Amino acid sequence: MVDDGDGPRQPHSVHAFFMRGGKPGEPLRFEVERMHDGRSFSQRRTTTTQDGVPILTMVSSFQERQEGTEVQLEAPDVPRPEELTSALEIFRSIDHPVAKFLGRTTAFDIRHVEGNIYLRPGKQTEGRQHLWVRSRGALPPDTTQTVHRALLTYMCDQVMLEPALRSQGLSWRSEGMSLATLDHAQWFHRDVDAGDWMLFVQDSPTSQGGRSMARAEVFDSAGRLVSTIAQEGMIRTPTATSHGSGDWAIRVAEGDDGGPIPEAVDPQTSA
Fold first, then answer.
1. Structural domain spans, the chain
2. For the chain, which terminal residue's Cβ has fewer other Cβ atoms within 10 angstroms, N or C?
3. The two domains 1-65 and 83-271 share their CATH topology (first three levels equal)
4. Where are the annotated segments for Disordered (predicted)?
5. Multiple choice CATH, 1-65, 3.40.50.1980, 3.90.79.10, 3.10.129.10, 3.30.450.20
6. In a structure prediction context, what are the per-residue pLDDT tens digits for the chain, which is 271 residues long?
């Protein structure tokens, strides 16, 4: 949220480029540049650095609340989340330290309509999927709309490239696979409630040259279209002439209490 003196303006779009992988244990520095403040819209550029090196740059646009014609796509008719298996149950049933860790700590409840691809590829090789998601914990009543939108942006990166994996007959455990988000664009159309069930309608129209495109329309439980997302990612797998490094796989470290802590392998040179 920004305030230009005439009142708060909520983020309505973000466009981010991921240039290098970050290190979870190292501090980050955020630098925000005021680009423009107009009568209705404001833009800011954010650069994130780690160890003095840029790892992300993002341009965000903010708009004051205004009246306008209401038109949108209709939400598809799919099974409701109460009819589907939670990813939490799946994680807790897998005898692997990473799965058990996620079963305890993951912040969102995710429920796939077509079945998940955590351990094996989908039943059909098709670049489409639907899933429901919401925050596991109750959010305070005074949680700002900016935080709700930020939570959706944070969460969506967990599932955005799944349609591309499905289209290639892959799963999250495909051997030798390297995967990374390259750039991310997101638009907010209406207020978001991260504590309410949200339906992701996703597809992947193309993959080529180690890059895959994925899109999502996000509806709330009442069928309102609240956000549209587009993301391009790097997905590399072993071929006859090259081998995926697997640098974006998950390894398991041991915490101070002896428990497992999943951590990403440093991927700064993988892309």
1. 1-65, 83-271
2. N
3. yes
4. 237-271
5. 3.10.129.10
6. 676 555 689 999 999 999 998 888 899 999 999 999 999 999 999 999 999 999 999 999 999 989 999 999 999 999 999 999 999 888 888 887 777 777 777 899 999 999 999 989 999 999 999 999 999 989 999 999 999 999 999 999 999 999 999 999 999 989 889 999 999 999 999 999 999 999 999 999 999 999 999 999 999 999 999 999 999 999 998 877 766 555 544 444 444 444 444 444 333 333 5
CA 197 to chain centre: 16
Closest CA to 163 of 203, 200, 124, 132: 203
Sign (positive or negative) of CA dihedral 224, 228, 233, 237 = positive
For domain 83-271, which architecture applies? Answer: Roll (3.10)
Token pair belonging to 2:
């920004």
Q: At CA 216, angle to CA 210 and CA 220, rounded to 5?
A: 155
Contact by Cβ (8 Å): 217, 162: no
What is the CA angle 74-78-83, rounded to 5?
Answer: 140
Q: Which helix (H) or strand (E) holds 101?
A: helix 97-105
How much is the CA Rg of the chain, to the nearest whole Å?
A: 19
Strands 178-188, 29-37: pairing kind = unpaired
| Structure tokens given for 39 | 């009568």
H or E stretch including 59? strand 53-63
Beta bridge partners of 18: 56
